[in-house]
Amino acid sequence: MDAQMKRGFLEACVLATIDRRESYGYQIVKDVPLTLGLTESTLYPLLKRLEAAQCIAVRTAEHNGRLRKYYRITEAGRLRIAEFVAERSEVLAIYDYVEAATGRGSMAQSLSAEATPDAAHAHPASSVQGGATARETQPTPQNAASALATRQNGSSSRPSADQSPFSPRPANASSI
Length: 176
Prior knowledge:
Blueprint: H1 3-20, H2 25-31, H3 40-52, E1 56-63, E2 66-73, H4 75-86, H5 88-102, H6 105-114, H7 117-121, E3 128-129, E4 132-133, H8 134-137, H9 141-152
Antiparallel strand pairs: 1-2, 3-4
């Protein structure tokens, strides 16, 4: 995964973890999804940045004879999570475009499946399927945009909001 993209996901996951309950560094590392590869050496600079941005607040308390820092989310941190979630539809639209433009991924495959096997080998003007030529049913960025608009209007193959705490779909999200 790209380092900058990973950094944004780490920030959102750390904020979401702290949003559930106040926590400390080692526990945050354990709670964040393993696929992100969060370690204490990457967590503490992230926590410092979030504190500087006033997204989290820190308190120190004694635990087993040692001082431990506990982190809790602030309203600015909750706003940062809301912004992250609101960007989801834009990010999905970009992935759909890249998949369709390159012929890779689930969007391109679903668009290709719409064309019949015979239509794929025939001349585009001579093969009409449901009012569209075979060329029009091949994966293109325009078809991806059309399919995305259909998906956003209710028929989605993506996980719904109740399937993952990190995948809510905003009702009024803008698309690109």
